[in-house]
Amino acid sequence: MLLHKILRYKAGSILLLLLLSSSMLVACAGNMREQPHIVPYEESDFFPDKLSARQPPAHTIARGQLDDDPILYGPMGTPTPSQGSASASQDVYPFAITKEVLERGQERFNIYCSPCHGRAGDGNGMIVKRGYKHPPSFYEQRLINAPASHFFDVITNGFGSMPDYKAQVAPQDRWAIIAYIRALQLSHNATIQDVPADKRGELEK
């Protein structure tokens, strides 16, 4: 008799446990994904204009797109004649120019700039060999004297027959390219005396 009661008690406990487990599985149903929703570009009866895609409020800024750094995102262009010109030593960059930045600038330069300007920056790119207009050399004095903001403006907005590259080249990469252009300009007429003393031996080998 006692054994029978024990078995009935265990069976009831197991049944109760199964019922509780089953009730928890209700939350795993996929009903949430089956709720009413709007397919992109589908007409909506909720809004008077029937458009499901809503126009963002005026002055809405996407996350990460504040672009509030005046140097990184929007330098003021080249100086006016009354301001004179700027040399590479007077350039202002939004971040420190490191070896990694120069290597990134070289990579982006070779991809986007060298087809026209040549890998050496002398304007003898592949397009010239195909009969297109010869772009200026970065070693022209006016471009050596031009401030870094001039190059940023040209990359961003284009100049003459050069189209803009703002869609292809991010602001950070534009500055990296400019830093690499400055390195090309500095190396063009450099002498062994311009190389740090501890590095000269590597060049003289």
TrEMBL record:
Coiled-coil segments on the chain, per record: none
Top-level taxon of the source organism: Bacteria
Keywords linked to the UniProt accession: Heme, Iron, Metal-binding, Signal
Record-annotated Cytochrome c domain positions: 100-185
InterPro entries: Cyt_c-like_dom, Cyt_c-like_dom_sf
Pfam families registered for this protein in UniProt: Cytochrome_CBB3
Molecular function GO labels: electron transfer activity; heme binding; metal ion binding
Name the record gives this protein: Quinol:cytochrome c oxidoreductase monoheme cytochrome subunit
